[in-house]
Amino acid sequence: xxxxxxxxxxxxxxAITQAHQQGLERCLTGGxxxxxxxxxxxxxxxxxxxxxxxxxxxxxxxxxxGGVIISSQPLGDRVSDRMSDRAxxxxxxEDLKHHLEEELLERQDLEDAFNQIxxxxxxxxxxxxxxxxxxxxxxxxxxxxxxxxxxxPTLQQSVNFRSLxxxxxxxxxxxxxxxxxxxxxxxxxxxxxxxxxxxxxxxVNPVNRSTGEVIGTTYICTNMLDRKVAEEEINKSFAALGAxxxxxxxxxxxxxxxxxxxxxxxxxxxxLSIPDRIFTxxxxxxxxxxxxxxxxxSSHFHNFGKDLNEDQNTFEIVELDDGRTLExxxxxxxxxxxxxxxxxxxxxxxxxxxxxxxxxxxxERYRLQATMLETALNELKNAQSQLIQAEKMSGLGQLxxxxxxxxxxxxxxxxxxxxxxxxxTSELLNLVKLYSTHYPSPVEPIRQKLQEIDVDFIGDDFxxxxxxxxxxxxxxxxxxxSLNNFSRSDEAKFKLVDIHEGIDSTLMIxxxxxxxxxxxxxxxVNKNYGDLPEVECYAGQLNQVFMNLLTNAIDAIEEDALANxxxxxxxxQPEWVxxxxxxxxxxxxxxxxxxxxxxxxxxxxxxxxxGGIPEELRNRLFxxxxxxxxxxxxxxxxxxxxxxIVTENHGGKLSFNSEIGNGxxxxxxxxxx
Length: 673
Prior knowledge:
Blueprint: H1 10-13, H2 21-29, E1 35-44, E2 47-59, E3 65-74, H3 78-83, H4 86-123, E4 127-132, E5 137-140, H5 142-148, H6 152-157, H7 168-179, E6 184-191, E7 197-208, E8 214-223, H8 225-247, E9 251-255, E10 261-264, H9 266-271, H10 276-279, H11 284-294, E11 295-297, E12 314-320, E13 325-335, E14 338-348, H12 350-365, H13 370-438, H14 444-453, H15 455-487, E15 495-497, H16 499-509, H17 511-514, E16 524-528, E17 535-537, H18 539-564, E18 566-570, E19 573-577, E20 585-594, E21 600-608, H19 638-649, E22 653-659, E23 663-671
Parallel strand pairs: 16-20
Antiparallel strand pairs: 1-2, 2-3, 4-5, 4-8, 6-7, 7-8, 9-10, 9-14, 11-12, 12-13, 13-14, 15-17, 18-19, 20-21, 21-23, 22-23
Helix pairs in contact: 8-13, 12-13, 13-15, 15-16, 16-18, 18-19
C-alpha cells in the first residue's frame, strides 16, 4: 500500500533507483530539467514489468528545488507499440503528460496541507512533542526547543521522552493511560536539558490508527513559570490590601455581582457579632442571612443593594436588633465598564447619636442658648463630615502609596536588568556576525535554521524591543512617582514642597479624563508656571484641593462639550465639531505676588472655558453638601473641603470669577509666611 511508502528512503523501497541515482540527483540539484528512462520492477512474486519513468524537479516558494516528481507509466509490448500508428503514440504521450500534471497537482495539495499543519505547530506558543509507541520522539516544534533546550536529534539520543519527567511514577501513569487510549492532563514539574525544573501544564493525547490501535503520543506543554510568578505578586498585593482593610476604622464588606463575599475585615465580623461557627463555615449565604436577621430597618443594606443601579452611591442609617445605630455607605465596584459588585462601609454611631440627643435635650431646656447650640451642632456636623472624608482620603492615600510601592519593586527590577539585556544581546549578535564572517558556509541544518529565523531581522528588531521595554518601564516609573507625590502619605506635617510637582502629579492621575472619548473631545491643559520657591504647606491637603478644582473643571467642560458639539467625519478623519469653534481647555497659572502690606503670597489660578456658573448658584458654591451634579455623582464636599484647607489650614483665600459662556476661574492665595 502506498501509505507504507510515505516517509521511507526511495533507494531502500525501490532498489532499481540506485542505478539511476545520478539522473535523479541532476534533477534535484537543478542541473537537469527532465530525465526519462525505462526501468524493470518486480511487482508481485517474481513477476516483473517494464515501466517508463518521467522525472522532473518541483520547486519551493523561493525558487529552490524542493524534490523530484517521478511519473511511472507501465509499458506493453514495445514491438506492438512500434507498429501502432503515429496518432496512437501522440495520444499516449498526451495521456502521460495529463497524468503527470495531475500528479503534480496532487503533490502540491499534499505539500500545502503538510505546510499548513507544520506552520500551525511552529506558530503555537505551547511546546509540542510527538513520540512513537516506544516513546522515541519523532517531532518537536520550536517552542519545545526553546522551553527545554533540546533539538530533535539530541532528544532522540536519550532513552525516551519519559526522561524529561521529574516524577517517574507520573510518567508511568501517563504511559498507562495512553496505552489504554485515554487522554491525560495536569500540572507537573518537568526538567530541561540542564536539569532545571519547570512547572508545566501538560496535556497528553494518544495517536491512533483508523483501526483504533495506539501508535504514538502527543505531548502539549504549557510553561506555568510566568503564571506562578504573577500569582506570587498578586498574593503580595492582596496581603497589602488586607492589611489596609484591617487598619481602617470602618467595617468593610465587599460583595460581587452575585452577592457572594469577596472580602470583609475583622471589624465587620465584630460589629455584627457573627458567631465563629457561622463565619468559619465559609458559607456566604449562611453568613449574609445571619446579617439580615440582625437588621431591624434600612433602605438598601437589608437586601445588600439589589435594588440599586450599577453607578449609584448610597448613605443610610441602619438600626440593629440590639439597639445600635450604624452609618452605612456603599458604592459600586466597577471593572471594565461593567458592575463588579458593591463595597459597603459601616460605622457604629450609637454613642454619637446619644450625644446628639443630649444636645437636643439641652437645647430644649436652655432656649436662651438656642442660637449658640445650633451653631455648635452645625459645626459638629461639618467636622464629622469632613473627618469622614479625611479618613477616606487617608485610607486612599495609604492604599495608593502601598500599590505604588508594590509596582515600583518589579518595575525597578525590570528596568535595572535592561542594560544587561542590551549588552548581552549586542555581544551575542556580534558573535553571530563574527561566526558568519569566518564560517560563511555553515552546514545544511544551520543554513536552513538561519534562513528560517532571519538573524538580521532578529538582530535589528530585538534591540528595538529592548528600547520599547525601557520606554514602558520609564513610563511606569513616572506614574508611580506621580502616585507617591499625590498621596504624600509621609507628609502630614508642614514642610517645604514643590507646588508644581503636586499639580503635575494630580494632572497625571487625571490623564485618562483629559483624553478624547466617544462622547467628548480632548481637553488641552495650558500651564503657565512662574518661578516659585519651595512653599511651606500641607502638601497632601493642597494636592486634594488641586484634585477637587481640576475635577470640577473637567466635569464642567464635559457638560459644555456634550451640549454644543458632536463627532463628525472630515476627510475620512473623526473630528469634534462645534458651531462656535471653541476648543476645550484648562489653564493653570502660578506666580508670587505682593499685597499692599508688602507680604508675599503664592497665587494659583485654575480656569476652564466651559459654560460658566449661573448667578443664582454663586453664593452657595462653598456651602457644605451643596452640589449641582446628579445624585450619585457629586457629594457637595469637594469645594467645601477645599475652602477649609486653603482658608483655615493655610490662612489663605479661595475665590472665583465666572462669566456665562466663557468659563470660570478659581484663585488660590496662600501666604509664604
